Amino acid sequence: MRSIPLGTSLSPTPLNTSKLSPFNINLKKPTTFPSWVSPPSHEFSLSHSGLCRASQVVDLFPTVSPGIIVREARLEDCWEVAETHCSSFFPEYSFPLDFVLRMDRLVAMLAGFTLPNGCKRTCLVAVIGSSLGETFLFGSEDFKVGGFDGKFSLNKGYVAGILTVDTVADFLPRKGPLRQRRTGIAYISNVAVREKFRRKGIAKQLVSKAEAQARSWGCRAIALHCDLKNPVATKLYQGQGFKCIKVPEGANWPQPKTSPDINFNFMMKLLNNSAATKSN
Ligand SMILES: CC(=O)SCCNC(=O)CCNC(=O)[C@H](O)C(C)(C)COP(=O)(O)OP(=O)(O)OC[C@H]1O[C@@H](n2cnc3c(N)ncnc32)[C@H](O)[C@@H]1OP(=O)(O)O
């Protein structure tokens, strides 16, 4: 059993831990992007792709849910976000450890998330049993607690999946002799879908919305680290147009700090190509 990173913030650590038995993955030939530049000017748009799959989920809540909605997490989602995170990444933990872990994540989410100047971070949730139109929100537009929208709703729905996207670039190679934080590249972490809601296209919708969010921030690319021994997640990202990036020989690129036996694939997708636009 791995030790629990108590007290660590949810978002800076991608926690791309696979719970699947390791086997060889035949990854696509690593790609090196020709350039890190050429900023896009895409409009922000809500993604409703994959709603046909959502109908399968709706069956579980026939009288309540019109479908799956991917939106920014709000304060009232906190516990379910922590629960989704812990049950997906640490499914082997049972009471009381699982409860302690959830509490730890909850506190980290609410207390943490101090962002470097000019950086952005959003926690997205895929919810079932709510609709944007029916939601009545309390709170001001700009109020934020941690990575969470400070608004509060009585019709919150049930959190089935989560994803964090940011522009902090903690896990991207620094640039220049001053080792400056890289800009224009969004980073995805903490992607998780509750077990009973998997294979319904929820992760795809989350990734798609993260891309839209990144475009709205003016990012030209989006990146992530994925556990080499997590073929399901690798397939998800490859299916969404991410390419495995070969880390140059001898380069000391930053990596998520999980357990030492986890090796990561660095994956990236340019947001200014037609495939990226099509997926939204
Ligand atoms: C950057 C990071 O955070 S990496 C961490 C990823 N998270 C985890 O490993 C946590 C545990 N796992 C999970 O929470 C989920 O299994 C996830 C997030 C990996 C996938 O969530 P889901 O909602 O089930 O994925 P979704 O239904 O959108 O499937 C998208 C694609 O992923 C692949 N995929 C998903 N599940 C499977 C599976 N069991 N077997 C094979 N391929 C799969 C498929 O290519 C699928 O596309 P398709 O349905 O058109 O074939």
From TrEMBL:
PROSITE patterns: GNAT
GO MF annotation terms: N-acetyltransferase activity
Record GO cellular component, one term: chloroplast
All residue ranges annotated as the N-acetyltransferase domain in the record: 68-273
UniProt superkingdom: Eukaryota
Pfam families, alphabetized: Acetyltransf_1 (PF00583)
Record-linked InterPro entries: Acyl_CoA_acyltransferase (IPR016181), GNAT_dom (IPR000182)
Residues spanning the membrane: none
Protein name from the UniProt record: N-acetyltransferase domain-containing protein
